[in-house]
Write a structure and sequence with these properties.
The complex is a heterodimer of chains A (114) and B (115).
Chain A: E1 3-5, E2 10-14, E3 19-21, E4 24-26, E5 31-38, E6 44-50, E7 56-58, E8 64-68, E9 73-78, E10 87-95, E11 103-104, E12 108-113
Parallel strand pairs in A: 2-12
Antiparallel strand pairs in A: 1-4, 3-9, 5-6, 5-10, 7-8, 8-9, 10-11, 10-12
Chain B: E1 5-7, E2 10-13, E3 19-24, E4 31-37, E5 44-50, E6 53-57, E7 64-68, E8 73-78, E9 87-94, E10 105-106, E11 110-114
Parallel strand pairs in B: 2-11
Antiparallel strand pairs in B: 1-3, 3-8, 4-5, 4-9, 5-6, 7-8, 9-10, 9-11
Classes of the chains: A mainly beta (114), B mainly beta (115).
């Protein structure tokens, strides 16, 4: 079985500060890992994904994440927060096949303070 | 734009009623899945359809059922609605041939309120 833990249901940062959103997973098979963002009253938008290969993955809007197998982590970072980054962020894991049975974490709400 | 559209966007139903939610996917996306997202929680996998057959299901009772059609549209049906069914229902699609790298694309969701 797979599971995802996101440390911190709510994270606040100042505009221009580093954003760090934590994600840890458990999986009995090599996982594919994803970060999705959800703006208020909208669906989920893909930020970035790790399938195989390079463990540092760059996504849209300046976000990146690093897959660390030894730590079973896939933390999301952005060097400088913008007001427009305020949203809910979800980490998700799926087995390394073409299934769509994603397991999502509970989400982290990011607030960006002026 | 993800190319996944859902309808209706909002609806209110009474406990015990039945509801049908609809989803239209991109051409070529032969795999569709549905998720339930309760307020303040992450999405929970309901089931997946591939070439019009269910081939994966989460921990949801049989009163949650679905259909997938050859024209890349699909439906989620929920019978005997309960108050706890109130949630955002998300449709997601992908190409099972792997061209999307197992990426799923979500629609904007249908908000269901059961009273």
């Amino acid at each position: 079985a797979q599971s995802v833990t996101q440390l911190g249901s709510h994270v606040s940062v100042s505009e221009g500060a580093l954003v760090l959103l934590r994600c840890n997973y458990s999986s009995s098979v090599p996982p594919y890992l994803f970060w999705y963002v959800q703006y208020p009253n909208q669906g989920l938008q893909l930020l970035l994904k790790y399938t195989t290969g390079a463990t540092l993955v760059k996504g849209i809007n300046g976000f990146e994440a690093e897959f660390k197998k030894s730590e079973t982590s896939f933390h999301l970072t952005k060097p400088s927060a913008h007001m427009s980054d305020a949203a809910e962020y979800f980490c998700a894991v799926t087995p390394g096949n073409y299934g769509q049975n994603f397991v999502f974490g509970p989400g982290t709400r990011l607030s960006v303070l002026p | 734009e993800t190319g996944v559209t859902q309808s209706p966007t909002h609806l209110i139903k009474t406990r015990g009623q039945q509801v049908t939610l609809r989803c239209s996917s991109q051409s070529g996306h032969n795999t569709v899945s549905w998720y339930q997202q309760a307020l303040g929680q992450g999405p929970q996998f309901i089931f997946q359809y591939y070439r019009e057959e269910e081939n994966g299901r989460g921990n949801f009772p049989p009163r949650f059922s679905g259909l997938q059609f050859p024209n890349y549209s699909s439906e989620l049906n929920v019978n005997a609605l309960e108050l706890d069914d109130s949630a955002l229902y998300l449709c997601a699609s992908s190409a099972k041939d792997g061209s999307s790298g197992n990426t799923i694309y979500f629609g904007e969701g249908s908000w269901l309120t059961v009273v």
